[in-house]
Amino acid sequence: MRPNPELRPPAVAGRFYPDDADALAADVEARLARAGRTARRHLAVMAPHAGYVYSGNVAGVVFADTVVPARVIVLAPNHTGRGRPGAVWSRGAFALPGGALPVDEELCALLLNHRLVHDHEAHRDEHALEVELPFVRARRPDVRITPIILGGLGLDDCLEIGRHLAEVVTRLAADVLVIASSDMSHYLPDDVTRRIDQRALEPLLARDPERLFKLVRDEDITMCGILPATAMLAYANARGASSAELLAYATSADAFGDTSRVVGYAGVAVR
Question: What is the domain partition of the chain in residue ranges?
Answer without folding.
Answer: 7-270
